[in-house]
Write the structure tokens for this entry.
Amino acid sequence: MKMLSEDLPVLKPIWNTDTMKHVRHWWVRRFSPRDRYTLTRFYRSPSQYDVLCRDVVPYLRPDGSEPPLTVACLGCSNGAEAYSIASVLKSSSYRGQFSVAAFDIDKELVARAATGRYFSPEIFKNPFITETFLQSTFERVDDRYLVRPEVKQHVRFAVQDILSDDMQQLGRFDIVYAQNILVNMPPALARRAFLNICQLLDERAALFVDGVDLGLKVRWTRRCGLRPVTTNMEEIYREAKEFLGEWPYWYSGLEPLAATRRDAAWRYATIFLKG
Ligand SMILES: C[S@@+](CC[C@H](N)C(=O)[O-])C[C@H]1O[C@@H](n2cnc3c(N)ncnc32)[C@H](O)[C@@H]1O
């Protein structure tokens, strides 16, 4: 049976246009159920870690190391992201104290993360892993990779639902990571979670927020008075695509970056500053 677009050739170019792809993605986002995925990676975005060390930490601690830098890592899954942050900060030129408080709703994942023990597929299913990162993060014991004690000592794990009303009891943080959680929530819940997350930001702070519907990110970062950081923006966006579904067929897929859009900085940046 011939395809409809072959019978009606005029439909073909229309269907293939970018506009139709955007419509398709809107439809997928609107109607496909969101699922709680736990996929994570060590050193998921090297370009984003680069901005953390080169721009964000100096912004938060311009003249030295006091007080200790506090980081919250929400939706931390098996701990890969929290340990990566600690390892990168430890290897950076920042000489001050720091702590990473990592949270997830899943208590089995939290218990697993706290062990700091991994098998090689959990580390190497990632084209961005470097020898330098491996050496500074892990010790190899038989077939396991153990997070080095000097990295592990900076990280604490706890069970926490980011949708719950008790989020404020976590306190305020200099840096909040909330990556690849919100895109897996229906929009109404993602909005509620976003507001909870913003309440964790100190007066002068940074939010890392990849893996979220782009429209929601533009609206709510603006409403919360956050400014996008555009350093490495295109590289970070490209690296994020590596682990997400294909656009426009999956709700988490990332559209082609359109640098000429007026809201491009808010739409495609993943790092935002407050204060
Ligand atoms: C796709 S993983 C992302 C892991 C990591 N942030 C990263 O970007 O690599 C999403 C994680 O968020 C957690 N999560 C989902 N809903 C949550 C909620 N309401 N509160 C806290 N964590 C949640 C899931 O259990 C899962 O481990």
Q: What stands out?
A: The chain has 13 helices and ten strands. Residues 46-60 form the longest helix (15 residues).
